[in-house]
Amino acid sequence: MELNGKQKAAMLLMSLDALTAAELLKGLDPEMVQELAVELASLEASGLCEGKEKMKVAREFCTSLANSSSQGLNIGHFLNEILVSLLGKEKAEQIRTQIKKMTAKKDLFADIRSSTAGELVSALEGEHPQAIAVVLSELPPKKSQEVMSLLNAETSRKVVWNMTNPDLLTGGVKQRMASIVSDRLKSLKGETFVAKPGRREENLRKLAITLSGLEKDLRDQLLGELSKHDEETSTMVKRLMVTWDDIPAIADRSLQEFLRSVDSKKLAISLFGADEGVVQKIRSNISEKAAATLDEEASLMQEPLPKEVLEAREEIMKPLRDANEEGKLRMIGR
Fold this sequence. Notes:
It is built from 20 helices and no strands. It is an all-alpha fold. Helix 9 (129-137) crosses helix 11. It is elongated and about 100 Å long.
């Protein structure tokens, strides 16, 4: 038998705990409560209030909530069909408001998750890294990394550390943090942090340098945690730990061992238009014979395209980055 709106409303209330059901029925006049009681008795007598039927109605209600979540908390067709027919529009609206409040209490970070990365950076300004770590851990991985990339290098390092070594926090502490950040988001009224062009890579570069100065085990632990949130960004941070411009900061012995296996032609292309400091660092760490071969290659080659220069430099940097990841590359004077 197909249930009507009132029957579904009655069965839905039967699925709730007594306290929640009482809260939803608060304010109903006695006649309405009596009518609802009659429906409940009728359902029980007909055998329709078994677990399977109640689960079906509850699932329909939850599906209605989920399908309308993109428009805010609006219980949509199900509420209109069931509760409006039983309680009237005014009471149904009151219940909608109650459900919204109950949901907000249950998910303290709902409003925070819906904010943009720029808004969150502004709201988190000045907060302790542990507090920021708690907020980021409640965000979707992609948004968490967007926020992380906009923080300054020192704060990012401390936040990552707190995310890998979380202290046990009570629900009350999290609730206070969520409340503080939510209030700040409301006070911003659309004012958000605006990143300058290239700011993200600049901040990731600073974070990369910071991490590269740590002991390998600790650095790997932090990078592993970063990778859990965003593999692409973690890879970018690893790449930014050792760049072409870092060559003057590589210890002579480390660079000499590496340069012995570099193809002369590839090295000549990579040095085209390079900074004088990089050129001098490389030439001072190769033999006279290798330097002569390099000069010969440079004199014979045509002017390379910018793309070819970048590709040559990336090819040269890869083994250096691999060595750095293994903890075998020594950096000085960075």
